């Protein structure tokens, strides 16, 4: 499969995975429809291709270091500062 066909398969898969025109990311549906209406023929997807599915987030993702990962909750040292201090002691071999 050439690069053009792979890209078209991705666009088609994303259109389907993101819920079409009423989905969370309608731009994939719009891109698919624009290309299809302009005469682009999308390659047939293999029936054994795994569907693209991303489950919804069920809990918030923490952007801050969590206690228990060698940083206490009362630590004033940022992760970047801690990593910079440890880099000086690292050796190869």
UniProtKB/TrEMBL annotation:
A GO BP term here is: protein transport to vacuole involved in ubiquitin-dependent protein catabolic process via the multivesicular body sorting pathway
> Know the name of this protein?
TOM1 2 isoform X2
PROSITE patterns, alphabetically? VHS
Entry's PANTHER family?
TOM1-LIKE PROTEIN, TOM1-LIKE PROTEIN 6
Stretch list, region Disordered: 58-77
Q: What is the lineage of its organism?
A: Eukaryota, Viridiplantae, Streptophyta, Embryophyta, Tracheophyta
Endpoints of the signal sequence:
none
UniProt source species:
Olea europaea subsp. europaea
Q: Which GO MF terms are attached to this record?
A: phosphatidylinositol binding; ubiquitin binding
Query: Per the UniProt record, which residue ranges are transmembrane?
Result: none
Tell me which family the UniProt entry assigns to this protein.
Answer: Belongs to the TOM1 family.
Question: What InterPro entries does its record include?
Answer: ENTH_VHS, TOL_plant, VHS_dom
- Please report the stretch or stretches of sequence annotated as the VHS domain: 1-43
Q: Which Gene3D superfamilies match?
A: 1.25.40.90
């Amino acid at each position: 499969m050439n690069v053009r066909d792979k890209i078209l398969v991705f666009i088609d898969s994303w259109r389907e995975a993101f819920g079409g025109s009423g989905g969370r990311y309608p731009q994939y549906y719009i891109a698919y429809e624009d290309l299809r209406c302009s005469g682009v023929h999308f390659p047939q997807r293999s029936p054994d291709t795994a569907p693209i599915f991303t489950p919804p987030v069920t809990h918030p993702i923490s952007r801050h270091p969590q206690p228990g990962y060698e940083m206490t909750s009362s630590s004033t040292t940022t992760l970047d500062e801690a990593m910079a201090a440890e880099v000086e002691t690292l050796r190869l071999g």
